[in-house]
Amino acid sequence: MVTYFSEIISGLWSLVLGLSVTFVEFIRPNVTVQYPYEKLEMPERFRGHIQLIGDEEGRPNCIVCMMCQRACPSGCISLSGKKEEGQKKKTLNSYILDFTTCSLCGSCVESCNFNALEYSKEYNLASTRKEDFIIDLLKRLEEQNS
Ligand code: SF4
Ligand code: SF4
Fold first, then answer.
1. Pocket lining: 69 vs ligand 2, CB cutoff 6 Å
2. What is the pLDDT of residues 26-62, one digit of tens each?
3. CATH code for 50-145?
């Protein structure tokens, strides 16, 4: 008889312990999100692919000095620009990043002295097509400002 009741008490105690764990987890703040309906805010130090920085009017800060292209050990930056008549600085015409070979080393961002390049917070890149990772950064900047 004693064994019978002690087993019931032991079972109830296990139930209470189990439910207490469930309850603690139930009220603890979520650490997961309902991806893809919700998206995480990337931390400040996150390195996505590079992107151009623009001025208040959305024009790229880049002056086409080519330092980033020279600094890139993987040769994944191709850019071009030209000096319009009457202008002191060159205007950027094209800035293409081949993200298939980028190692996110950061040399390009470090080599830019004109606050024209930064890491994006882009983490949601997936494709089976190589072309999807050839990124037109000038077009991207335009789209961000439109
Ligand atoms: S280093 Fe900066 S300013 Fe020079 S070409 Fe690259 S992005 Fe433009
Ligand atoms: S992060 Fe490194 S590999 Fe990628 S584009 Fe810049 S310099 Fe090239």
1. no
2. 999 988 889 889 888 899 999 999 999 999 999 999 9
3. 3.30.70.3270
Q: Whose CA is nearest to atom 2 of ligand 1?
A: 112
For ligand 2, say whether the CB of 76 is within 6 Å of any of its atoms: yes
What is the DSSP track for 52-121? E-B-TTS-B------HHHHH-TT--EEEEEEEPTT-SSEEEEEEEEETTS-----HHHHH-SSS-EEE--
Tens of pLDDT, residue by residue over 44-54, are 999 999 999 99
Q: Is the CB of 62 under 6 A from ligand 2?
A: no
